[in-house]
Amino acid sequence: MIRFNPVSSRRYVAGQFVWFLLWVGVTSIGLYLTPSPEGHGTHTELGLPPCPCVVFFGRPCPGCGLTTSFTATLHGNLRLAFRAHPLGPFLYAIFTVTAFLGLWGWWNRKRIDATSLPMRRFSAAAVIAFVAFGVMRFAMSPHYGDHDPYHQWVVASRSAK
Questions:
Q1: Signed CA dihedral, 42, 43, 47, 49: sign only
Q2: What is d(CA 34, CA 46) in angstroms, rounded to the nearest whole number?
Q3: Is the Cβ–Cβ distance between 153 and 49 less than 8 Å?
Q4: Fewer CB atoms inside 10 Å of the end CB: C or N, the chain?
Q5: Which helix (H) or strand (E) holds 14?
Q6: DSSP line for 98-146
Q7: Do residues 71 and 34 touch, judged by C-beta distance below 8 A?
Q8: pLDDT at 92
Q9: Which residues are CB-neighbours of 82 under 8 A, at least 6 positions away?
Q10: Computed from CA positions of residues 143, 148, 150, 153, in that sequence, does the dihedral angle turn out positive or negative?
Q11: Has residue 157 got a pLDDT over 90?
Q12: Is residue 147 scored above 60 in pLDDT?
């Protein structure tokens, strides 16, 4: 159960409004991007480099595929979203719910009580699940091959020097 505590001024809950604005930004970018059919690498459409974990180890980090998963979720392609990152649609749903709860709390001058026992347990379980998934994914994923867009980007950037 999510609890709220009243505050005297909206400035005490400004972070909740910033969280909502961050959600608006992430959602806008996700709607603008086209999800990569490979299941990862969508963020490179923004000019960002590939994940250092993939570049150095040839394996995905715990967050690899989240941009693609969020983007695919926003475009209604849940099959690709879950393939890109099995936790992605759930994380985006949690992000959405907390963004709107934060906006509601900001508007009504109520701070989300993140220190309640249920909230701490939920947060701990989410972090443990994310890290455990990431470790298992790193250990069990095959190396990305030469056909991978990350590898192609690294080869192209090295040959341009």
A1: negative
A2: 11
A3: yes
A4: C
A5: helix 14-32
A6: HHHHHHHHHHTTEEE-TTSHHHHHHHHHHHHHHHHHHHHHHHHSPPP-T
A7: yes
A8: 98
A9: 69, 88, 89
A10: positive
A11: no
A12: no
d(C-alpha 34, C-alpha 39), whole Å = 11
Q: What are phi and psi of 18, to 5 degrees?
A: -60, -40
Q: Name, in order, each residue with C-beta under 8 angstroms of 149's C-beta and a sequence gap of 6 or more.
A: 36, 38, 41, 44, 50
- Angle 71-145-41 (CA atoms, 0-180°, nearest 5)? 20
**Contact criterion met (CB below 8 Å) for 137 and 60:** yes
The residue type found at 96 is: T
Nearest CA-CA partner of 111 in 22, 1, 12: 12
Q: Is the pLDDT of residue 158 over 90?
A: no
Would you kindly state where each structural domain of the chain is located, as residue ranges? 4-159
Of 154, 153, 143, give the one whose Cα is nearest residue 45: 153
Q: How far apart are CA 110 and CA 148, in angstroms?
A: 47
Digit-coded pLDDT (tens) for 88-142: 999 999 999 999 999 999 999 999 998 989 889 999 999 999 999 999 988 887 7
